[in-house]
Amino acid sequence: MTFRKRLFCLLAGIASPASIAAQPPVPVTALTGGIMVDVDTGRETNDATIVIKGERIVAAGPSAAVAIPAGAKIVSVKGKWLIPGLMNMHVHLGLKLPGAAGAALVGETDPQEVLRMAGNARKSLLSGVTTVRLVGEDHGTDFALRAAIESGDVLGPRIKTAGEIIVPTGGHGSLEGDGPYVLAKLVREQIKQGADLIKIAISGGIADMHGSISAAPMTDEEMSVLIDVAHRNGVPVTAHNGSVAAAQQALRFGINGFEHGYHLDVPTLKAMKEKGVWLVPTMVVSQPGAREFYKKIGSPDWYLARVDSTGKDHWAMLQNAIRIGVKIALGTDQFPYEPNGGTTATVAEAELYEQAGMTPLQALQAATIRPAEMLKIEDDAGRIAPGKYADIVALKADPVHDISALRSLDFVMKGGRVVRDDGAGILE
User: Fold this and answer.
1) Rounded to an integer, what distance in angstroms lies between the CA atom of residue 22 and that of residue 85?
2) What are the C-alpha distances in Å from 94 to residues 16, 134, 136?
3) What is the pLDDT of residues 237-250, one digit of tens each?
4) Is 107 helix (H, G, I), strand (E, B) or coil?
5) What residues form DSSP beta bridges with 176?
6) Computed from CA positions of residues 176, 181, 184, 185, in that sequence, does the dihedral angle turn out positive or negative?
7) Which of 83, 192, 305, 326 is the most buried (most CB within 10 A)?
8) How many CB atoms lie within 10 A of CB 33?
9) Nearest-angstrom CA–CA distance, 12 and 148
């Protein structure tokens, strides 16, 4: 039995034909009295009602115009702002970084890791993040966890995943290969396991003790073949990158997105805008709010020095990207729920976008409809509208006027299921 199958059996179990035949009736829920936010326009509907059947929204609008079906469960969210569930597009649920916490996980087995990831997935969902994009996990743990969440046996956000990070030998990742056709095989293997995207690393990273963030170690032939193979299978490619040289190289071969972008310059950002290439900035990792996290995990001095040396360029890059109009989707490279700057990493990331030049609405869009567009799941998620998944969070303040309203989040629904309601306590 493969590792993936063993983990799935451990986390999910197998439903019997009898249990399938005895399915309960589809539940109907109505959220009433909230202020529903249209994240496209910023328009707000006071005293709104949202009717949910099963996982999906069937009606949403002013209470006077929306009929609540007989027998529906009524959930009052009176006076709260309702927005789509937040999305975090750069997550490692099995994250290990240099420092004491990472050293304690050196001997972690794959089953131990996937169980730790399941705990992090639960905390992420309860923090209001209903969809995550995993951009590098170990040995199929992400595929097993995704299956367990989809089966309903593990509580967590919706997962889109890249599998393992593909790199040339010595690169910023663990799935190493050299030469175009070795790398092509690694791409095909990740897609075979169920990868929704491919993640490559085309420069060094802050956590590396070797290799420059500004380098471009992959050859043209390696990169072009790798991207071509992924695209032939209908799978996008994103790249860990902070290097101008590596970015310009990847743009020539049709890369779909960059993670971090630490040192990207204005000409590179303009080329990204022209080609429609996505940026997932992960600003929280290089800004002062992360110090609390780095202290918690016992980060060594050399790592903190690399954070500090990267932060200034990283901030200027974000300001330029916003001004130029590069497509930006929110991602943190910290656990979505992790404390950062007095809030969660996800909320802190959105606040940094506003500080760098976005309007509050644009920052909210970067956490909702922009990720849905990047993942090509606009038909299912990113807005509160009939036909979409009922992934909804409630706030005590108005995010259209101040993105820090996300700090007041106190209610989470995923797929029509209330998983957090601070007025009633944690339900799961």
Assistant:
1) 31
2) 31, 10, 9
3) 999 998 999 999 99
4) coil
5) 167
6) negative
7) 83
8) 17
9) 5
Query: Would you give the DSSP letter of residue 201?
Result: E
Rg (CA), the chain: 21
- Per-residue pLDDT at 339 exceeds 80: yes
DSSP one-letter string for 34-88? EEEE-TTT--EEEEEEEEEETTEEEEEEEGGG-PPPTTPEEEE-TT-EEEEPEEE
Q: Which two tokens stand for residue 190?
A: 């990740």
Cα distances from 249 to residues 136, 201, 215, 386, in angstroms, run: 22, 13, 11, 42
Pairing status of strand 343-344 against strand 339-340: antiparallel
d(CA 225, CA 57): 42
Contact at 8 Å (CB) between 35 and 80?
yes
Q: What average pLDDT does range 256-266 have in this prediction? A: 96
End-to-end alpha-carbon separation of the chain, Å?
32
Q: How far is CA 195 from the centre of its chain?
A: 15
Question: Any residues with CB less than 8 A from the CB of 106 and at least 6 apart, and which?
Answer: none
In the 8-state DSSP scheme, what is residue 410?
A: -
To the question of pTM greater than 0.85 for the whole model, the response is yes
Write out the two tokens for 414: 């995923």
Are 363 and 405 in contact by the 8 Å Cβ rule? The answer is: no
Q: What are the structure tokens assigned to 90, written together?
A: 């750069």
Greater confidence (44 vs 292) lies with 44
Residue 117 three-state SS = helix
CB atoms under 10 Å from CB of 325, counted, come to 11
User: What Cα–Cα distance (Å) separates residue 326 from each residue in 18, 249, 381?
Assistant: 52, 18, 22
Nearest residue to 393 via CA among 202, 193, 125: 125
Token pair in block for residue 135: 């951009």
- Report how far residue 210's alpha carbon sits from residue 213's, in angstroms, rounded to the nearest whole number: 9
The secondary structure of residue 385, as a DSSP letter, is S
Q: Which residues pair with 53 in a beta bridge?
A: 28, 56
CA distance 282 to 307: 12
Q: Give CA–CA dist 51/66, Å, rounded.
A: 8
Q: Which residue has the tokens 């069937």?
A: 58
**In 3D, which of 93, 26, 42, 37 has the Cα closest to residue 60?**
37
Q: Are 346 and 327 in contact (CB under 8 A)?
A: no
pLDDT above 90: percentage of residues in the chain: 79
User: Tokens 């328009």 correspond to what residue?
Assistant: 43
